[in-house]
Amino acid sequence: MTRPLSASSVPTPNVGSHGVNKTELFVVVFFFLLVSVLGFLAARWRRARDANHLEEWGLGGRSFGGWVTWFLLGGDLYTAYTFVAVPAALTAGAFGFFAVPYTIIVWPLVFLFLPRLWSVSRKHGYVTPADFARGRYGSKSLGLGVAIVGVVATMPYIALQLVGIQACLDVIGIGGKGSSTFAKDLPLFIAFAVLAAFTYTSGLRAPAVIAFVKDFLIYLVIIVAVIYIPTRVVGGWHGIFHLASTTKGKTKPGFLSLNEANGKANAFPYATLALGSAMALFMYPHAQIGVLSTKNRNTVRKNLAGLSMYSLVLGFIALLGYMALAVGFNGTPTGHLGGNAQRAVPALFDAVFPSWFAGVAFAAVAIGALVPAAIMSIAAANLFTRNIFVDFIKPDATPKQQAQVSKTVSLLVKFGALIFVLGLDATSAINFQLLGGVLILQTFPAIVIGLFNRWFHRWALVAGLWSGVIYGIVVAWQQKKFAADGKTVLQQHFGNQIAKVPGTHLYSYIAITALVLNLLVAVVLTLVFRALKVADGVDETQAADYTADEGDADLPDLIEAEPALAEI
Amino acid sequence: MSESEQSTRGPVVTPARLIAAVCVIVPFIAVLGVPIFDKDKPEVAGFPFFFWWQLLWVAVTAALMGLAYYVVRREELARRPVAVGGTVVAAAPKADGHDGAASSETDGTAGTDGTAGAAGTEGDTAEEGDAE
């Protein structure tokens, strides 16, 4: 009936060719309403006596135990990046699989430095990475640098979440048409408004509660997808890899491994993308929030083995990109996706699942984008408030004023993200996250090296940070995006995050090149400043602070959460 | 200064820390050494080598992280009671608060006296290479 290794049992309708799929829309709206109600109710969950305090709104009162942490950190990893951007990157070849080594090595990195960050933050009441940089080096300017970079780097990452939601809505059949920007992006604005509203009222508690629903939906969808879809493709996994890597019977290079593509040239970019992304992840203010809101020093370490499960699932989600290729979807103009590879996974779900379950899957993806977007905007807002507003604008702000400023800024950050979505090419959304990584990785020396060693001079770190950031932005700006023919320029700027390392033949993730420059500047200037005896700041932390733990006698008090619930 | 600090914390390199260090380093080599796995054969369960190797390392890394936590934690617990039994327990944290902000030169004194130092983990090796 069918030829061997064909995917003929799966239809591949063009995205946008049918009207609104009402069943899908109904299911998505249902789950949206459900999580919205949960989001607003979350404000009452484990409520502290002083809900308007920043430590409360922004860190959930530092009361989260193992389970909540597992879900909250999951919120950092399972985002639209995982569900939409990475599979979309795989539709262009095995190179996109770098997300897997990235999420593998992130855990050993975490094992190394996060307990120390937790301890010193708990001891000194640090809420943001910039707090630590400022305290450790006695330098408000360094804190300011870390804070500005953190806020800006978060925006493209939030933008990626909005792109993910948009892709689902496109496939359902709303939006994506119409001529005006407003009609086209209306669903995006709606999703944006819901997100903004519940973050504003509930703070970190909202995404923490919704994360439970989100992870349940995601696991359900992924398990079903990974077991069911291969049965729909003749030849199972072998068939998927075979079909994804061939076109009209010919093997395409770079799909079964990197090697086939253009020799060994891809190995270094692949490794640097993985390494740079891994080092960058826990520099993001939102990822640190997940860690700082835990109850004790070892909560995260203890959960690392469990957290690794996220990476495994991420790997299989990534392969949804190949499944989409196998059934005939791809990012080319004839690939049934309207030329936008970001729609690959939603289109695949739409094609293989019955409408009601496709609706559940879209809800999982959309909520999976909302939760991290909420956490990210809260984290960026904390950062602004603590290290820009209080340090430089209004030093005597009351906790209540601080919480208010944070809430307002969390809105502004989301608007910034919206500008990224509308302004940059959204058909390769993984670029958004990688661009954020280029920026945020430059805070690595001040934070991670600072946790172990205070050799660097504060002004050298400030100079290094800005050198890295400026280099990264300039080089990223210069990267053009080419069409498949290698000549036609699709996008003039920010088209790619891999560039040649100056003075070599190697291509590397820009973030890593910029970090090397950053470190060089910091080392050289440290020697210079020491020789000139430029005043080094006062370090307010001490050796023992880095190993402090819950229950130590000298820790500052926390705002009390309701005791009965603090055990979850 | 840093020498005296380390001496009261027991040896910096212990078998537990060595094991933890290996657990932490090995995944980097396995998944960043792209030439190791950049080929499509042999295939397992339909997965090209490139893919199953990396997916396999997710599970291996999980196991290594579990092991690293286990050995480090066990050592921490073994050390802690010794320090808690010491007489400096109540005094040290106070000294902390007073000296702390005054001068970075005094850094590490509290750690020398023992309490929290006992909770030290593998990270302490590079502890506080402070200003001078």
Structural overview:
The complex is a heterodimer of chains A (568) and B (132). Chain A has 568 residues and is mostly helical. Chain A has a single domain, classed as Sodium/glucose cotransporter (Up-down Bundle), CATH 1.20.1730.10. Chain A has helices spanning 22-41, 54-59, 66-77, 80-90, 99-124, 129-137, 140-172, 181-202, 205-232, 236-244, 267-281, 285-292, 299-302, 304-326, 344-352, 355-393, 399-423, 430-440, 444-452, 458-478, 510-531, and strands at residues 246-247, 250-251, 481-482, 489-491, 498-500, 507-509. Chain A has a two-stranded antiparallel ribbon. Chain B has one domain (2-126). Chain B has helices spanning 2-8, 15-32, 34-37, 49-85, 91-102, 109-113. Chain B starts with a helix and ends in a 19-residue tail after the last helix. Residues 1-8 and 82-132 of chain B have low confidence and may be disordered. At the A-B interface, helix 5, helix 10, helix 11 and helix 14 of A face helix 2, helix 3, helix 4, helix 5 and helix 6 of B.
Shape of chain B: elongated
What is the helix tally of chain A? 21
Strand order of the largest sheet of chain A: 1-2
Count of folded domains of chain B: 1
Helix content of chain A: 55-70%
Write down the CATH class of chain A: Mainly Alpha
Taking all Cα atoms into account, the compactness measure Rg of chain B is 21 Å
CATH architecture of chain A: Up-down Bundle
Count up the domains of chain A: 1
Q: Assign the CATH topology of chain A.
A: Sodium/glucose cotransporter
Structural class based on helices, strands and sheet pairing of chain A:
mainly alpha
Which residue ranges of chain B are poorly predicted, with pLDDT under 50 across at least 5 consecutive positions? Answer: 1-8, 82-132
According to CATH, the homologous superfamily of chain A is: Sodium/glucose cotransporter
Identify the quaternary structure here: heterodimer
How many strands of chain A? 6
* Strand percent estimate of chain B: under 5%
Elements of chain A, N to C (H/E): HHHHHHHHHHEEHHHHHHHHHHEEEEH
